[in-house]
C-alpha cells in the first residue's frame, strides 16, 4: 500500500486537483454561464497561501498558530476569492456566452500580468520555499486534505442540485428569460454560481501552493482555462461526475502516454479533438444515456400540513 | 360548462394608463389604457403585429416601457424586473412556448414555485429544507394532475405535443401562485378537440384559483365564448373595448381585420 | 509627451497594430460565418512563420527531428531578394491557409454536422492548437530562429530622422509590415465588398440557411473563409517573425490571445471592427509609458474587459437585441 502511495500519490493528488478545478468551472456552467475564470481564482488562492506561509509579515501569525496556519490560508483564500468573484462577477455576468468567456479570459490574463510585476507575488520568479502543509513528509499525504475537500465539494454539489437553489440554476441555464418570468432572479443566482466556483478554485489553489512548494504566474494561464473547460465538456457538463471523471482522465492521459515521450503532447491534443468529436455529451453523458432513469415516484398523499406549509 | 360563471366584481385589479413602447421609429404599443376587473376573463385581440405580445411583455417586465403606468392592486408594476412582477402575483405563458425543454415536466412546475419558497443555499446544503421540499413536490403533482400530465411527470418537457406543452406552461404559470394569469395564444398549435375543451379548462382554473385572466387569442369562436370583455389592438393602439358581441360588431374592428391592406 | 517620442510611439503602434488587425481578421471571418472562435488561429500564425522560414532558410540546425536536413544546400532561391522573399511569404501564408482548411474539415465540420454544443469547438480547436504547437517543437525544437538580415536583399535596416533635438528611428521592417498590412486590408476590403465571392461570403455570414436556399454552396464558402483566415494568420506570423524572430512554437499564443481582445474591441464578426480594434490596441500598447512597460501585455485585456462592460457589441459591432 505505501509503495503504491509512494509511486502514485502525487499523480492521484493531481487527478483530484483537476477534478476539483473542473467542478469549479462546472458551477457557473450549471447556471448556464461559460466562465473561464477558474485558473485566475486558483492562482489567487495559491498566492494568498504562499504569501501567508512565506512572507515575513506573517511570521508572528505562523509562530502563534503553528499548523493552524494552513486551515487559515484556506479560509483566507476562500474569502478573498469570494470577494473577487463578486467584484468580477457582478459586472461580467451581464454578458452572455462567448462574451462572458472572453471577459473571464481577460480577468485571468490581467491577473497573470499583475502577478508577474508585483513584488509581493515574487514577480516573474514567483514565491518558493513554501513549507509543506502540516509538515507532510511525502506528497501522497496531501491526499489527506485534497481527498476530504473533493468529498466535501461533491456532497455540497449533490445537495445543492437537489435543492431550490439548484433548480434555480438549471432554470437559468435552460432559459434565463423564462426563469426570470417564473420568479427566479437570474443575476443573483448567476453571481452565486460564479462565486461558488471562485471559492472552490481559490481553496484548491491555497492547498496546491504547499503541495507544489512554489507558486508563480504560470499557475493561472489561458491554457489552463481551456484545459479545465475540456475537463468539464469531455467528462460531461450535465452531471457533477463529469468534471471529476474528465479532470482525472485528461490529467492521467499524458501520464499514461509517457512511453510515447515527445509525442505525448501531440497525442494529448488529438485526444481532445477526438473526444469533442465523438463524445459530444461527455463521457458521463454518454454513460447516462445507456441507463434509462426511472420515472419520478409520486410521494404518498399525506394530510396537508397547515396553511403556512412546513417551513421552519 | 361545469360551473356557473361567476360575475366579475367591479373591483379593479389592473389599471393600465398610457402604456407606450417605441422600438426606434416604430411604436409597438401606443398610449394604451384599460382596466381589468377582479375575476374577469379579459381578451386581447388584434391583427398580427398589433402589439399584443409586446403589451404582455411590458406588463410582465420582459420589455421596459417607454412611458405610461400599470398599477396592480394599487402598486406600480412597469419597470420592475420580471421576477418581481411574478412575486407580486402576475404570471404568464408565452406565445412561442418557453418551457425548460430539457427538464422534466415535474421540474418545470417545481422551479416556478421559487418565489413562494424560501430555502436558501445553506438550508438546501444541510437538508434543512425537507418540509418545504415535500410541499413543493406535492404542489407540483397537484398542478400536473390539474393539466392531466401527472403520468408523464418524468418526461422532458420538450418531448410533449404542442397542446400538452401549452397546458404544462399553464401549470408552470400557476405554480407561481398568481392572482393574475396572462395567457399568450393558449390555443395555438392545439388540435380541434383540445381547443374545444380549452374554454372550460381556463374557466375551471380561474374559479379554482380565484384568478383574473388576460388572454391573447386569434381563434375567434374561443374568444367569443371565453371572454367577459375584449379589447382590440391595431397598430399598437386600443381601438375598441367591450363585451365580445359588441366588439365583434364594431366597424373599426371589422375594418382593422378586413381592410387596411 | 515630446513630439519625437509621440511620432516614435505612433509608428511603433501602427506597425504592430496593423499586424494585429490582419491577424484578427482571420478570427473574425470565421466567427462571422460559424459563430465560433477558432483557438487554433494562434497556432496557424506560428505555422505561417515557420513555413516561410523553411522556404527562405531551408534548415533548422539547432534541434528537433529535422535537425541536419537542409532543403537548399546551395542556398535558398527565396533569399536575398525582396521579390523572392515576398513570394516565400505568400507561399507560407497559402500553406497556413491550407492547414486552416484542413482544421475545418477535420475538427469543425464533423462537429457541425452532428449539431454538437458549439462550446466543444473551443476544446476541439484548442486540441488542434496543441497538436500543431507540439509537432513544431518535435520537428524543429523550441529555439528562436531569426531570418537572415539580408533576406530581402540589401536594404537599410532603419530610417532615422530628427525632430528637434531627438532622433526618431523607424525600422525598415516596421514600414514593410505596415505597408503589407495596408495592402492586404485593401485587397480584402475589395474582395469582400466588391466581388461576387465577397457578396456570397456576406450572405453566408448573414444567414447560412438563407444562403443555401439561394443556391450558394455554404460548405464551399466555409472552406474559402478558413483559407482566407489561415492565409491572414500565416501572413501575420511571417511579418512578426521578420521583425522579432520566429520565437519558438509558442510564439503565436500571445497573438492568439490578443487577437481575441482585438475582435471583441472592434465587435465580434465585424471586419472594419477588427481593423479598428487592432490599431487601437497596437497604439495603446505603444503609448504605455516606459516605467509601466511591464504591464504592456495587460493593456489589451484591460481594454477588452472595459469594452465588454461598457459596450459589449464592440466599437463597430451591431447592437445585440434579444428577441422575446
What does this 3D model show about the protein?
The complex is a heterotrimer of chains A (312), B (261) and C (324). Chain A contains 13 helices and 2 strands, in the order H-H-H-H-H-E-H-H-H-H-E-H-H-H-H. In chain A, strands 1-2 form a two-stranded antiparallel ribbon. In chain B, strand 4 and strand 5 form a beta hairpin. Chain B is an alpha/beta fold and 261 residues long. In chain B, 49% of the residues are buried. The N terminus of chain B is likely disordered. Chain B has a 6-stranded mixed β-sheet with strand order 6-7-8-3-9-10, sandwiched between helices. A 4-stranded antiparallel β-sheet of chain B has the order 2-1-4-5, covered by helices on one side. Chain B has 2 domains: 152 residues, P-loop containing nucleotide triphosphate hydrolases (Rossmann fold); 78 residues, no CATH class. Chain C has one domain: ABC transporter involved in vitamin B12 uptake, BtuC, CATH 1.10.3470. The longest helix of chain C has 32 residues. Chains in contact: A-B, A-C.
Number of DSSP E strands of chain A:
2
The parts of chain A where pLDDT drops under 50 for at least 5 residues are 303-312
Number of domains of chain C: 1
Q: Could you tell me which chain pair has the largest interface and how many residues each side has?
A: A-B, 39 and 56 residues
Instruction: Tell me the distance between the termini of chain C.
Output: 51 Å
Sheet-strand content of chain C, in percent, reads under 5%
**What structural class do the secondary elements of chain C suggest?**
mainly alpha
* Shape label of chain C: globular
CATH architecture of chain C: Orthogonal Bundle
Biggest sheet layout of chain C: 2 strands, antiparallel
User: What structural category arises from helix and sheet content of chain A?
Assistant: mainly alpha
% residues in beta strands of chain A: under 5%
Helical content of chain C stands at 55-70%
For the largest beta sheet of chain A, what order do the strands appear in spatially? 1-2
Q: What gyration radius of chain C follows from the Cα positions, in whole Å?
A: 20 Å
Identify the CATH class of chain C: Mainly Alpha
What is the succession of H and E elements of chain C? HHHHEEEHHHHEHHH
The CATH topology of chain C is ABC transporter involved in vitamin B12 uptake, BtuC
- Helix and strand string of chain A, N-terminal first? HHHHHEHHHHEHHHH
Amino acid at each position: 500500500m505505501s509503495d503504491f502511495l509512494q509511486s502514485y500519490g502525487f499523480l492521484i493528488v493531481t487527478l483530484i486537483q483537476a477534478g476539483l478545478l473542473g467542478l469549479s468551472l462546472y458551477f457557473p456552467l450549471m447556471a448556464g454561464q461559460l466562465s473561464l475564470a477558474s485558473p485566475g481564482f486558483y492562482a489567487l488562492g495559491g498566492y494568498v497561501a504562499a504569501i501567508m506561509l512565506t512572507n515575513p509579515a506573517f511570521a508572528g501569525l505562523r509562530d502563534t498558530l503553528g499548523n493552524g496556519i494552513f486551515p487559515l490560508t484556506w479560509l483566507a483564500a476562500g474569502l478573498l476569492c469570494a470577494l473577487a468573484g463578486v467584484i468580477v462577477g457582478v459586472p461580467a455576468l451581464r454578458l452572455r456566452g462567448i462574451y462572458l468567456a472572453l471577459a473571464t479570459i481577460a480577468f485571468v490574463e490581467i491577473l497573470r500580468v499583475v502577478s508577474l510585476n508585483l513584488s509581493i507575488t515574487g514577480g516573474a520568479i514567483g514565491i518558493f520555499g513554501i513549507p509543506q502543509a502540516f509538515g507532510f513528509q511525502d506528497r501522497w499525504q496531501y491526499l489527506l486534505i485534497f481527498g476530504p475537500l473533493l468529498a466535501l465539494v461533491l456532497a455540497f454539489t449533490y445537495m445543492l442540485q437537489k435543492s431550490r437553489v439548484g433548480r434555480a440554476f438549471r432554470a437559468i441555464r435552460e432559459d434565463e428569460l423564462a426563469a426570470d418570468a417564473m420568479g427566479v432572479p437570474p443575476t443573483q443566482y448567476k453571481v452565486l454560481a460564479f462565486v461558488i466556483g471562485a471559492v472552490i478554485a481559490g481553496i484548491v489553489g491555497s492547498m496546491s501552493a504547499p503541495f507544489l512548494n512554489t507558486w508563480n504566474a504560470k499557475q493561472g494561464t489561458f491554457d489552463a482555462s481551456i484545459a479545465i473547460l475540456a475537463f468539464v465538456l469531455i467528462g460531461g457538463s450535465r452531471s457533477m461526475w463529469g468534471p471529476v471523471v474528465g479532470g482525472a482522465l485528461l490529467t492521467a492521459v499524458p501520464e499514461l502516454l509517457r512511453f510515447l515521450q515527445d509525442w505525448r503532447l501531440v497525442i494529448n491534443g488529438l485526444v481532445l479533438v477526438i473526444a469533442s468529436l465523438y463524445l459530444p455529451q461527455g463521457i458521463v453523458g454518454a454513460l447516462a444515456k445507456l441507463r434509462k432513469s426511472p420515472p419520478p415516484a409520486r410521494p404518498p398523499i399525506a394530510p396537508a400540513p397547515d396553511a403556512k406549509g412546513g417551513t421552519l | 360548462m361545469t360551473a356557473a360563471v361567476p360575475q366579475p366584481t367591479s373591483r379593479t385589479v389592473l389599471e393600465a394608463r398610457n402604456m407606450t413602447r417605441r422600438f426606434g421609429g416604430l411604436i409597438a404599443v401606443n398610449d394604451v389604457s384599460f382596466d381589468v376587473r377582479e375575476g374577469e376573463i379579459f381578451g386581447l385581440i388584434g391583427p398580427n403585429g398589433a402589439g399584443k405580445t409586446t403589451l404582455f411583455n411590458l406588463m410582465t417586465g420582459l420589455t421596459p416601457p417607454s412611458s405610461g403606468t400599470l398599477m396592480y392592486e394599487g402598486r406600480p408594476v412597469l419597470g420592475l424586473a420580471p421576477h418581481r412582477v411574478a412575486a407580486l402575483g402576475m404570471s404568464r405563458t408565452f406565445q412561442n412556448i418557453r418551457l425548460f425543454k430539457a427538464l422534466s415536466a415535474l421540474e418545470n412546475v417545481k422551479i416556478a414555485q421559487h418565489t413562494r419558497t424560501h430555502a436558501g443555499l445553506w438550508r438546501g446544503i444541510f437538508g434543512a429544507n425537507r418540509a418545504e421540499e415535500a410541499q413543493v413536490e406535492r404542489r407540483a403533482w397537484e398542478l400536473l394532475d390539474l393539466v392531466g400530465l401527472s403520468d408523464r411527470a418524468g418526461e422532458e418537457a420538450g418531448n410533449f405535443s404542442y397542446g400538452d406543452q401549452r397546458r404544462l406552461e399553464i401549470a408552470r404559470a400557476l405554480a407561481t401562485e398568481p392572482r393574475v394569469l396572462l395567457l399568450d395564444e393558449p390555443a395555438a398549435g392545439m388540435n380541434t378537440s383540445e381547443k374545444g375543451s380549452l374554454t372550460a379548462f381556463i374557466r375551471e382554473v380561474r374559479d379554482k384559483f380565484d384568478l383574473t385572466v388576460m388572454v391573447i387569442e386569434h381563434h375567434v369562436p374561443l374568444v367569443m365564448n371565453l371572454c367577459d370583455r375584449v379589447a382590440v389592438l391595431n397598430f399598437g393602439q386600443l381601438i375598441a373595448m367591450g363585451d365580445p358581441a359588441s366588439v365583434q360588431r364594431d366597424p373599426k374592428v371589422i375594418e382593422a381585420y378586413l381592410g387596411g391592406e | 509627451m515630446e513630439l519625437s517620442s509621440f511620432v516614435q510611439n505612433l509608428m511603433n503602434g501602427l506597425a504592430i497594430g496593423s499586424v494585429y488587425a490582419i491577424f484578427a481578421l482571420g478570427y473574425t471571418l470565421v466567427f462571422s460565418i460559424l459563430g465560433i472562435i477558432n483557438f487554433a488561429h494562434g497556432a496557424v500564425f506560428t505555422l505561417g512563420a515557420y513555413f516561410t522560414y523553411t522556404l527562405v532558410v531551408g534548415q533548422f540546425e539547432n534541434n528537433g527531428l529535422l535537425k541536419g536536413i537542409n532543403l537548399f544546400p546551395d542556398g535558398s532561391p527565396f533569399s536575398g531578394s525582396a521579390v523572392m522573399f515576398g513570394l516565400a511569404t505568400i507561399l507560407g501564408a497559402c500553406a497556413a491557409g491550407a492547414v486552416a482548411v484542413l482544421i475545418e474539415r477535420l475538427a469543425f465540420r464533423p462537429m457541425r454536422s452532428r449539431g454538437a454544443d458549439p462550446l466543444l469547438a473551443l476544446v476541439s480547436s484548442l486540441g488542434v492548437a496543441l497538436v500543431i504547437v507540439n509537432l513544431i517543437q518535435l520537428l524543429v525544437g523550441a529555439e528562436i530562429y531569426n531570418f537572415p538580415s539580408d533576406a530581402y536583399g540589401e536594404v537599410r535596416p532603419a530610417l532615422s530622422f530628427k525632430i528637434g533635438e531627438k532622433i526618431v528611428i523607424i525600422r525598415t521592417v516596421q514600414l514593410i509590415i505596415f505597408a503589407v498590412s495596408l495592402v492586404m486590408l485593401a485587397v480584402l476590403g475589395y474582395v469582400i465588398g466588391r466581388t461576387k465571392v465577397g457578396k456570397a461570403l456576406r450572405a453566408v455570414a448573414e444567414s447560412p440557411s438563407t444562403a443555401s436556399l439561394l443556391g450558394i454552396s455554404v460548405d464551399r464558402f466555409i472552406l474559402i473563409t478558413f483559407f482566407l483566415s489561415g492565409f491572414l494568420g500565416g501572413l501575420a506570423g511571417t511579418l512578426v517573425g521578420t521583425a522579432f524572430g520566429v520565437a519558438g512554437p509558442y510564439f503565436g499564443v500571445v497573438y492568439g490571445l490578443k487577437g481575441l481582445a482585438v475582435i471583441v474591441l472592434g465587435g465580434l464578426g465585424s471586419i472594419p471592427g477588427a481593423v479598428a480594434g487592432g490599431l487601437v490596441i497596437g497604439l495603446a500598447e505603444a503609448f504605455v509609458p516606459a516605467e509601466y512597460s511591464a504591464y504592456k501585455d495587460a493593456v489589451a485585456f484591460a481594454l477588452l474587459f472595459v469594452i465588454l462592460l461598457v459596450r459589449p457589441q464592440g466599437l463597430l459591432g451591431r447592437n445585440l437585441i434579444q428577441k422575446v
